[in-house]
Amino acid sequence: MTSQDFVLRAVNLDGGYVIGSSEKELRFVHAVRNVSLNLNYNEILGIAGESGCGKSTLAKILYGAVDPPLVLRRGSIYLHTSEGRIVDITKLDKEDLAKRIWWREISYIPQNSMNVLNPMKRIRDTIIETFKFHGIEISKDEVTKYVRDLFDFVGLPTDVLNAYPHQLSGGMRQRVVITLAMMLNPRIIIADEPTTAVDVVTQLNILTFLREYQNSKKSSIVIISHDMGVHAYMDTAIAIMYAGSIVEYGKSEEVFQEPLHPYTKMLMSSLIVRGDKGLKRGIPGSPPDLRNPPSGCKFHPRCPFAMDICRKEEPPIIEISKNRFVTCWLYAKR
Ligand SMILES: Nc1ncnc2c1ncn2[C@@H]1O[C@H](COP(=O)(O)OP(=O)(O)OP(=O)(O)O)[C@@H](O)[C@H]1O
Question: What confidence score (pLDDT) does residue 1 get?
């Protein structure tokens, strides 16, 4: 496999939440709008954007965790498996996903993952159960053998296995969940805000661990965060999401050096640069209500460069250079 190969390719994903209790009240929260992207071999792809832009929904769809009220209306997700086959995971049922794909090929670290551990079970029993869910029987003694290296890598002592979640700090619980996600050596890890609820030192440890792990295994990571500092530290490529769409995509260094979309520029201006004593401004306004988004470009009400056409028509996806895309009328040749 070369660096040009994709491990996961999403094509025209379109989905969201069906909400409302009666037929008359049914509404659609259009959280993911026509999203296409490639996750390449040995890459860390960041998904950035403010809260409510659809990042977590995209993560769930990419993993195949599409449960009501979430629906996927259109699109395909092609996985290049470790056996060299290409499988559209949107066509697989839950049982197939659990047995063949989840953990072995793709792992998912959900938002607030430090709270997903069963409070009534010791970590060792949670691990045994999780293995069982994926069709693998292991004994209590085997657990220690399985996790020793990974625990070492994340800096957890093996006696954590005998603890209940409440006996561990938030950072330790988070590291346990990350270890769980890595136990079957998946080629892809989707991490949704893996460090929001921990202090800055733990945050740096967890991010460094993810990066080192990725580098040693040549796996691929999708990292979701609203924090541009996390993306600056982690990403090799970055997709900027706004109101359910990807508005800019490119190699991380290119996007950070020369952001194109007005929204990306605003996100970047929230980054604190060393030595910069100026006051950082937040982005004025807030993302739109995805039940009833504005016409045309969804960013136009907040955009200082909005033109007439931006209010009326959705902007096209423009390829500025190889693998560098922006969805904005400012760059369209008309
Ligand atoms: N279970 C749900 N039912 C209905 N609407 C939902 C549900 N989960 C999310 N949404 C809505 O979908 C939209 C996208 O939310 P999503 O969580 O994907 O955004 P996000 O960018 O990940 O933000 P955050 O970081 O705050 O989670 C929002 O309008 C949100 O209110």
Answer: 42
Cα–Cα distance measured from residue 266 to residue 284, given in angstroms and rounded to the nearest whole number: 9
ipTM of the complex: 0.98
How far is C-alpha 155 from the geometric centre of its chain's CA atoms? 24
Q: Using 50, 70 and 90 to split pLDDT, how confident is the model at 3?
A: very low
Cis amide bond preceding 301, omega within 30: no
CA distances from 43 to 6, 53, 321 (A): 9, 23, 19
pTM of the model: 0.93
Amino acid 306: pLDDT: 96
Percent of the chain with pLDDT over 70: 95
Query: How far is Cα 300 from Cα 223, in angstroms, rounded to an integer?
Result: 27
pLDDT digits (tens, 9 = 90+) for 46-74: 999 999 999 999 999 999 999 999 999 99
Region 269-289: what's the mean pLDDT? 72
pLDDT band at 294 (very low <50, low <70, confident <90, very high): very high
For atom 18 of ligand 1, the residue with the nearest CA is 54
Ligand 1 atom nearest the C-alpha of 244 is 14
* Maximal CA-CA distance, the chain: 67
Look at ligand 1, atom 28, and give the residue with the nearest C-alpha: 52
Pocket perturbation via mutation, ligand 1, pick of 18, 29, 223 by most ligand atoms within 8 A of CB: 29
